[in-house]
Amino acid sequence: MTPFAIAGVQMYVNALQPNVDGMIHRLDLLMARFPWTQMVLFSELAPYGPLTKFSLPLRNETVDRFCEAALRHNVWLIPGSMFETAEDGRIYNTATVINPQGEIVQSYRKMFPFRPYEAGVDAGTGFCVFDVPDVGRFGLSICYDMWFPETTRQLTSQGVEVLLHPVLTGTTDREAELSIARATAAQFQCYVFDVNGLGAGGVGKSCVVDPTATVLHQSAGQEDMFPIEVDLSHVRRQRERGMKGLGQVLKSFRDREVDFSVYDRSSGTDAYLHGLGPLAIPGQDTTGAARADLGRDLGGRPGTHQPTGRPANAGEDASAIPGIKVGGTPPLTN
């Protein structure tokens, strides 16, 4: 066996006040109750909530406090993520991995911001893989990243055995996400720790899934601390012999006879995708039916939507059109 104890913390997140003190308090409580815990994972944007106006530089006093807490408790700590203001002024949704010595070993910028709702947040391009000595290899992705299996494919192809996945989902697609978490564990034969928040941090329903797609824990809609001891030899066994002695999906992908031209942007294979219109928030549809012209230009300008039954006026400003919200709204993360 290769046992390792990981705890998720599902907690209430305030959008207008810092949650850092509450996170450290819960960490202290968790370690007092379950001192055998070796790694702790909080939800996406837990420290400051979903508003980009609270964005900070990558290294800041809050991260220093988390480093001190990890050292004090001798645990690996992933304190969710925070909006990061880079040196060039761009904003990223960034998670930090801290080791038991209180050192930052990795930072990861969310690769797929929840566009078009998570406006004003740039996408990262690097992957996060790190080793826990004498235990195994871990990978980190954030929320909407999991909807794109290519992200987990990249991580598990580098040997990742546990996928750490902080999320902030307060929307009606949470049930779909839970299905994706189970499918991800099965497809890539890995553990998945999917930790959501509450309040401004989500609707809860955090989950832990093993490499056979078995749900080891499912939170409800209240605060929850759930330490789970995983066995990484279980991952290795599944990958060697197949899930429950059946599908050996990582080996099958390795031994594939096809390369996928859709990943070559110049191949033209993805031509259909370019006909779907702009990545924009839908406006009101008075017909109640999906509009085929959702991405059609209004007055010659791409990305604006003319609601049904309203005459087009050339040069009309998008902010004057019902259903279009311009600026000032908090990003809807996922």
Describe the structure.
This protein is α/β, with parallel strands linked by helices and 334 residues long. 20% of the residues lie in helices and 22% in strands. The chain is built from six helices and 15 strands. The protein has helices at 20-33, 61-73, 149-157, 174-188, 232-241, 249-254, and strands at 3-10, 12-13, 39-42, 76-78, 81-85, 91-98, 104-109, 128-132, 136-140, 162-166, 191-195, 198-199, 207-209, 215-218, 224-231. The strands form four sheets. The chain has a six-stranded mixed β-sheet with strand order 8-9-10-11-13-14, covered by helices on one side. A four-stranded mixed β-sheet has the order 4-3-1-15. Strands 5-6-7 form a three-stranded antiparallel β-sheet. Helix 3 links the parallel strand 9 and strand 10 (162-166). Helix 1 runs parallel beside helix 2. The relative contact order is 0.14.
List keywords for this structure.
334 residues, alpha/beta, 6-stranded mixed sheet, 6 helices, 22% strand
Summarize the model shown.
The longest helix has 15 residues, at 174-188.
Task: Compile the SSE list and pairings.
Blueprint: E1 3-10, E2 12-13, H1 20-33, E3 39-42, H2 61-73, E4 76-78, E5 81-85, E6 91-98, E7 104-109, E8 128-132, E9 136-140, H3 149-157, E10 162-166, H4 174-188, E11 191-195, E12 198-199, E13 207-209, E14 215-218, E15 224-231, H5 232-241, H6 249-254
Parallel strand pairs: 1-3, 2-12, 3-4, 9-10, 10-11
Antiparallel strand pairs: 1-15, 5-6, 6-7, 8-9, 11-13, 13-14
Helix pairs in contact: 1-2
